């Protein structure tokens, strides 16, 4: 595709919604609560907030900025913005991260799809932790249903991506986000009024600093990247479809706050219920699938609300998966002059294959482990805790030391049209020094290298 015929988002509000569609997803509803629960609660949340503000937000600004400046996929961006050859590695790492993440993310999305039917038939209408655990355990330990649900997810998202950027992504992202938000608010109110709810709020908001270890900090940082789809070229690819007059700092800040509020709402819907019903906060990936149905079960009209909730969560996962697929699809179609359809088919095929060990990681392949992790956990760890932070360091170093302040000024101020010089200087300082240094230290500590 040439520069002038590249597909793009058609309105400024559409840009905001599509970018939000990439950020908001299972990360808010599933990953944020399960990691917060298994990493000690409020202390983890505190580190996550700091990482989001000091590292995530500035990185999101410069990533989308690079994409828009070059109007290209995550690899070609670096052909266009610099003469130096090596930086393209960032795009290729993003290519790998996208495949790894989608391989396990589509599995979790598959569980959500399966729960839509379980919710509708009333088979998860229970507040009993034992029964809830059994239902979830039965789903994930069945190899056939694990695989089939994953394929349904990939089939659906693969077909949407074949339809193109503005038609596919924008249309899906536009419609359903506000509904999910409203449902979360309702869920929160019910959860907070359960007897014993306060213990959950305390867990979520009263930090116990002794629980903050280097490994916890690395996980929180990894979550900050994962949440805002950073460090792997997704935001670069989306930035490449941004409008010329888009106010990047404002758009990214809005996306960050909106995304954060969805996560906090999910946390406030889940943790009070965890304590009220006697679930284990550290249950891990199953946490959401057990507690959310319990909250709905304890309110009038529970089955309808519960079914709608899983439908909307499934939709939110679609927006995120589309943005994940977009990274390899844009790279393949633009660099190898492949049609979008062929690029999408190849990408989905690769993920189908990589997804098999992830889908079977709690059944047939449960004993296949590397570094003590099954395929699902390994893909998650490799992407969130290694590839995204390393990608983040490289992007910061590139913008801070190669791209430079004058160019950044020009891009983030839309050629002087926006009066935001002071803000850009802060962003530049953060990406030149603070972000790369802190990511590097956290990474080395978290991996026990130092
Ligand atoms: N941000 C998405 C979520 O939190 O669900 C997940 C994600 C999407 C991660 C796109 C990375 C990415 F490139």
Describe the structure.
With 450 residues, the protein is mostly helical. The chain is built from 18 helices and no strands. It has helices at residues 12-23, 26-38, 42-70, 76-81, 89-120, 129-140, 143-162, 165-192, 198-205, 214-227, 234-239, 248-277, 287-297, 302-335, 340-359, 375-403, 405-412, 421-446. It starts with 11 loop residues before the first helix and ends with a helix. The protein binds 4-fluoro-L-phenylalanine (PFF).
In round numbers, the mean pLDDT is: 94
Q: Give the end-to-end Cα distance, rounded to a whole number of Å.
A: 46 Å
Provide the number of structural domains: 1
Q: State the CATH superfamily name.
A: Hydantoin permease
Which shape, going by the Cα principal axes? globular
């Amino acid at each position: 595709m040439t520069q002038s015929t590249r597909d793009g988002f058609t309105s400024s509000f559409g840009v905001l919604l599509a970018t939000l569609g990439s950020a908001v997803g299972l990360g808010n509803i599933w990953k944020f609560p399960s990691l917060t629960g298994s990493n000690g609660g409020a202390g983890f949340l505190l580190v996550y907030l700091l990482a989001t503000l000091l590292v995530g937000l500035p990185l999101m600004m410069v990533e989308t900025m690079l994409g828009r400046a070059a109007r290209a996929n995550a690899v070609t961006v670096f052909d266009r913005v610099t003469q130096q050859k090596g930086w393209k590695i960032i795009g290729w790492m993003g290519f790998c991260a996208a495949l790894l993440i989608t391989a396990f993310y589509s599995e979790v999305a598959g569980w959500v799809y399966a729960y839509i039917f379980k919710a509708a038939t009333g088979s998860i209408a229970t507040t009993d932790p034992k029964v809830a655990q059994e239902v979830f355990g039965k789903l994930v330990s069945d190899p056939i249903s694990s695989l089939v649900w994953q394929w349904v997810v990939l089939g659906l998202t693969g077909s949407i991506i074949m339809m193109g950027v503005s038609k596919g992504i924008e249309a899906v992202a536009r419609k359903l986000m506000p509904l999910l938000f409203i449902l979360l608010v309702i869920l929160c109110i019910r959860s907070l009024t359960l007897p014993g709810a306060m213990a959950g709020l305390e867990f979520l908001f009263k930090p116990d600093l002794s629980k903050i270890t280097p490994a916890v900090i690395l996980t929180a940082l990894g979550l900050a990247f994962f949440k805002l789809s950073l460090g792997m070229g997704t935001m670069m690819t989306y930035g490449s479809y941004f409008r010329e007059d888009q106010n990047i700092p404002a758009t990214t800040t809005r996306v960050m706050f909106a995304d954060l509020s969805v996560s906090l709402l999910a946390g406030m819907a889940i943790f009070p219920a965890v304590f009220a019903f006697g679930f284990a906060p550290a249950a891990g990936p199953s946490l959401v699938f057990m507690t959310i149905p319990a909250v709905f079960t304890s309110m009038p009209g529970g089955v309808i609300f519960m079914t709608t909730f899983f439908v909307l969560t499934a939709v939110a996962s679609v927006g995120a998966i589309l943005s994940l697929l977009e990274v390899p699809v844009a790279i393949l179609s633009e660099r190898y002059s492949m049609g979008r359809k062929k690029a999408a088919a190849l990408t989905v095929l690769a993920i189908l294959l990589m997804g098999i060990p992830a889908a079977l990681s709690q059944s047939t392949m449960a004993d296949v482990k590397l570094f003590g992790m099954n395929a699902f956990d390994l893909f998650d760890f490799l992407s969130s805790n290694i590839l995204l932070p390393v990608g983040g360091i490289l992007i910061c170093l590139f913008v801070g030391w190669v791209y430079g302040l004058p160019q950044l000024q020009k891009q983030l101020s839309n050629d002087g049209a926006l009066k935001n010089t002071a803000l850009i200087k802060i962003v530049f300082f953060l990406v030149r020094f603070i972000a790369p240094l802190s990511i590097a230290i956290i990474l080395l500590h978290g991996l026990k290298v130092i």
